[in-house]
Amino acid sequence: MTTTIPNLPLLLKPIFLFLLFSLSFLLFLHSHSHHHRKTTFQSASPSNDLRIRPGYSSYSAYIERQLNKTLNPKLRKIWTTRDWERKVHVFADFFYSLKQRNLLFNDSKALSIGARVGQEVEALKRVGVSDSVGIDLVPYPPLVVKGDFHAQPFNNDTFDFEFSNVFDHALYPSMFVGEIQRTLKPGGVCVLHVSLSRRADKYSANDLFSVKPLLALFKDSELVEVRGVDGFGLDTEVVFRKMRKNII
Ligand SMILES: C[S@@+](CC[C@H](N)C(=O)[O-])C[C@H]1O[C@@H](n2cnc3c(N)ncnc32)[C@H](O)[C@@H]1O
Ligand SMILES: *[C@@H]1O[C@H](CO)[C@@H](O)[C@H](O)[C@H]1NC(C)=O
Ligand SMILES: *[C@@H]1O[C@H](CO)[C@@H](O)[C@H](O)[C@H]1NC(C)=O
Ligand SMILES: *[C@@H]1O[C@H](CO)[C@@H](O)[C@H](O)[C@H]1NC(C)=O
């Protein structure tokens, strides 16, 4: 009796150690799978795949920041001279390809959003889409007229085709998309070039990590196509078609 009592804790020691080890292992597995579930859930969440950049204290601070680059006289000189032909060619190839896929036609009324000095509008005209115009905070007539993409200066149901490679500059993405859906005719096509894999420039107002947030925003449209492109740092072309009104 006197020998078995001190022996009991000795015998139990390995069992305790085993239990302790198993428990920590189970805890590790649990936290690991929980973490995994959480990250999977988060990457499937639209709001988390579209993040508005902090640091814009007001709408006028945002506009000022956008204008800071767009109004830069040295850059405007480069955009309209040295850069001009090269960029027009790249845009023309994109628009030619969209014509081949019956998403754009010579008689389409076309808008390019955030067109800056209008290389993309010139490209639309060159591939035969003569009724084309651009909007930007800074006009560059006659190709680009003044307009904020959060409040487009056009009536409802105006365009057959809208293109933009500046979604990342939208401080209010739901207004950016809402305005496209408002000004597109029913059945009209919207083509966005976005960056999913690398962060856009320091003038961006949001970061997009998947196409899912776009699917949620384009609620009056259907997704037509998603494909990889190589467009001035933008890697993905997303095509939507505004739904035709339901006949009740
Ligand atoms: C990265 S540049 C792209 C210019 C042009 N699309 C190109 O590829 O050469 C972004 C453009 O978006 C314009 N922009 C930014 N915020 C805007 C807004 N709220 N409404 C209209 N244009 C805006 C800027 O003025 C700038 O010209
Ligand atoms: C743009 O910002 C730079 C540096 O932040 C500043 O020096 C410059 O005056 C600004 N330009 C305009 C047109 O606001
Ligand atoms: C569209 O316009 C282009 C350029 O002007 C022209 O070459 C082409 O034949 C036109 N296509 C159609 C289908 O009219
Ligand atoms: C234009 O479209 C918007 C949004 O789709 C709608 O709320 C508004 O009533 C329309 N305006 C006119 C004049 O039809």
TrEMBL record:
Name of one Pfam family that matches: Methyltransf_11
A GO molecular-function annotation: S-adenosylmethionine-dependent methyltransferase activity
Domain Methyltransferase type residues, every copy: 111-192
SUPFAM superfamilies in the record: S-adenosyl-L-methionine-dependent methyltransferases
Bilayer-spanning residue ranges: 12-29
Signal peptide extent: none
UniProtKB keywords: Membrane, Transmembrane, Transmembrane helix
Superkingdom per UniProt: Eukaryota
PANTHER family: F21J9.14 (PTHR45085), METHYLTRANSFERASE TYPE 11 DOMAIN-CONTAINING PROTEIN (PTHR45085:SF7)
Protein name: Methyltransf_11 domain-containing protein
